[in-house]
Amino acid sequence: MKKSTILGKSTLKVNRLGLGCMGMSEFYGSFDEAASIKTLHKAIDLGVNFFDTADMYGWGTNEKLLRRALEGKWGQVVLATKFGVVRGENGEWLGVNGQPDYVKKACERSLSNLGIDTIDLYYMHRQAEDVEIEETVGAMADLVKQGKVKYIGLSEVDAETIRRAYKVHPITAIQTEYSLWSREPEQEVFDVCKELGITFVAYSPLGRGFLTGAIKSRADFESDDFRLNNPRFTDEAIDENSKFVEVIDQVAKDKGVTKAQIVLAWILHQNDEITAIPGTRRIHRLEENLGAYNVELSPLDLSHIENSIPKTTIGSRY
Question: Would 256 be classed as within a structural domain?
Fold first, then answer.
């Protein structure tokens, strides 16, 4: 199994298992920045070189965390961050902004938060309904010309939007939720990525932790965990969606590996150009995730998974 790939038509060579850093600042209950920094350092030691953040994670604190953790190590990593989801000074949600002037201001703020001169991969986090994609991507293209961004990407967009954006400036990566219970990108997005030479980056590849079997009920969450408000984590949804975990658990036992490793290996087996960014704050989970590289799934294994998992997922993604 290939362990690395070139992001799109770029010069950025990344491991196919990166690290999503969102949970190191909020969303998934309590967090420990010192422990997160140790995990980030361990990730580099283990060969991970693709780190993903956004300006809205902790409304800036996640980028600042990466600045502290990666100081003196920037030459060893490829850093992706995002703009577009706007939050106030107290973390309140203020909508999505894709206006050209905002794009440029957001980039300057991220550069300051990260303490760097150039962002390797800059994503539009979400598309603003009141701004044409050509306007937003045009502003991103200006950032590339100015040397503030090396390559650009889009998150959670459809095939038509990708094509329109690509006519303005080459798109290096498309980031969308993708896992055994979130397979929407297979319908059209995979095809356009292959056609245009764009790398697909799968976020929440472990189903926000659910597909690992770690979540048995809502009682497993801390009171400030955002999943308590997610439609896939109601009592009914957890009960019904446990059928996914049952199939994964069976395959994992047959292979002598963990459920997380099966879930990640399944994604990596879809094609050689997919990169996944599972998030974790714990070193032992990081090491477990990277063990997916060593899991070989035969055509029979893949067929069994395909034919055994539920055809529908209970609850929308958001």
Answer: no
d(CA 174, CA 197): 11
CB count in 10 Å sphere of residue 317:
16
**CA–CA separation, 68 and 132 (whole Å):** 36
Return d(Cα 140, Cα 143) in angstroms, integer: 5
Beta carbons within 8 Å of 312's beta carbon, 6+ residues apart: none
* Domain count of the fold of the chain: 1
Tokens linked to 48: 């991970």
pLDDT of residue 27: 67
57 is catalytic: yes
Phi and psi at 73, nearest 5°, equal -125, 5
For residue 92, the enclosing domain spans: 4-208+267-294
CATH value at residue 279:
3.20.20.100
In a domain, 217, yes or no: no
In sequence order, the 6+-apart residues with CB closer than 8 A to the CB of 108 are: 148
Candidate list 28, 57, 178, 203, residue with the active-site label:
57
Please give the pLDDT value at position 59. Answer: 86
pTM confidence score: 0.95
Structure tokens at 313: 């997922």
**HSE-up of 134 (CA within 13 Å, CB side)?**
3
C-alpha to C-alpha distance for 194 and 209, rounded to whole angstroms: 28
User: What are the respective helix, strand and coil percentages of the chain, to the nearest 5?
Assistant: 45, 15, 35
The alpha carbon of residue 302 and the mean position of all alpha carbons in its chain are separated, in whole angstroms, by: 23
In the prediction, which pLDDT does 28 show? 62
Distances (CA, A) of 3 to 41, 121, 160, 250, 292: 19, 20, 30, 25, 10
The four Cα atoms 109, 36, 287, 42 give a dihedral, to 10 degrees, of 80
CA 141 to CA 169: how far, in whole Å? 6
Helices assigned H by DSSP within the chain: 33-45, 61-70, 100-114, 133-145, 159-168, 189-196, 235-255, 259-268, 283-290, 299-308
